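Structural prep section.
Before we set up the soaks we want a predicted structure of the protein with uridine-diphosphate-N-acetylglucosamine in place, mainly to decide which crystallisation condition to try first. Input record follows.
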Amino acid sequence: MNVVILAAGMGKRMRSDLPKVLHPLAGRPLLAHVVGTARSLAPGRIVIVYGHGGETVPRTIGGDDLRWALQEPQLGTGHAVVQALPHLDPAAPTLVLYGDVPLITSETLARLLAVAGADRLGLLTVELADPSGYGRIVRDGTRIVRVVEHKDADDATRAIREVNTGILVAPTAALARWLGALSNDNAQKEYYLTDVVAAAVHDGMEVASAQPADACETLGVNSKAQLAALERIFQGRLAGQLMDQGVQLADPSRLDVRGELNCGRDVTIDVNCVFEGRVELGDGASIGANCVIRDTRIGAGAQVLPFTLIEQSSIGARARIGPYARLRPGTELGEETHVGNFVEMKNTQMAAKSKANHLSYLGDTVVGERVNIGAGTITCNYDGANKYRTVIEDDAFIGSDTQLVAPVRVGRGATLGAGTTLTRDAPEHKLTMSRTQQTTVESWERPAKKPARKP
Ligand code: UD1
Ligand code: CA
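Run finished without errors. Recording the tokens verbatim:
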């Protein structure tokens, strides 16, 4: 089979510089969703007709298996498919999809392909309460005889509620013949793909139809409001799948997955969490409200408390992170680690049972096991030009409000006194501190306010 995806249209109502088909749905371009569905059908060829937005579209989507056909200018859906013809295998049927109709499922398409077989024209149609704007399916008895565009239809035809979704499958040689004979003598002066239906009937070819499992599947994106509506439908589907797998969602309508979320058993997710890229949540992990987690592995039984942001990190089993933690790329936390509020980490590995519970910045740092990082500890890893590493060995105790001026090493079991600015390595098992002596000035008196002078 061949698949042609129409993606050349301009999307004027999006009011955007970004080509319509590149607008993201669940974090991926609309067109990427359609390409993914097309691939799931394992066609021999996938041809994408592009135009508006130019080379940005193929450059963004990529894919060695995709063929691209430029349509310039855009003279209608029939003209669009003509551009794809040179790329098609004439011996196999051609399925036409739309780059701005991203929710179509492979199950529905498989049904359409099955009713059409190799020698019928197959149309995906749907009954709508409000069919206005769509092409109408005109039947003679049960037989489809043509499709009439809304703008070309008389009142009787406009009363028909069965509409063309745009998705069709046709024997390719016949399709090429019909397209070659199209005219643009219609209300929009466009070459209509839908005119192939009357041509097929004229040739005595049978026209079959199938309906989507859910009418939502054929919704297109023409505006920002429609894009937002489709996003909710998509997220609703995903939330349903997660709950079917046993994930406890506090509210399925308040979850956003922009990528792939893999969950173990007994995972719980509170409201307003966003998962981006590839995220894995181990058995029994729990994610508090308002967390954003990107490209990260969270170990079994780990707790991520509310308002935490984690990117490109890995969190060990039974760790406790947040609330209000920020873990930047390259953070690797061992088992049973604790990272508390207002702690930022970047490119930092912290081994099992170590803790940084409050108000710290650890960057380019290796922390051993059972280390305690006191509140307000900062690694000074950057001198304005270069970055340096800090090493804190097992069982060290870092007093509060300490600055570790990298490169610097804190030896095994060392203790740093509160307020230390560490500029040289601290030896193992010793107390190291840098502090001015505490003094009390006995003769000092707090200044008193002078009595106000009478005017
Ligand atoms: C089309 C159908 C209509 C159907 C409706 C479903 C035709 C003539 N009409 O109408 O029967 O009910 O879809 O939404 O086919 N495109 C190109 N190049 C072009 C024109 C369009 O690539 O020159 C692409 C668009 O990017 C879009 C798709 O084709 O993805 C549909 O185009 P659009 O203009 O939205 O068609 P409609 O007028 O809505
Ligand atoms: Ca449309």
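Observations: Residues 65 and 281 are 32 Å apart (CA to CA).
Flagged for discussion at group meeting.
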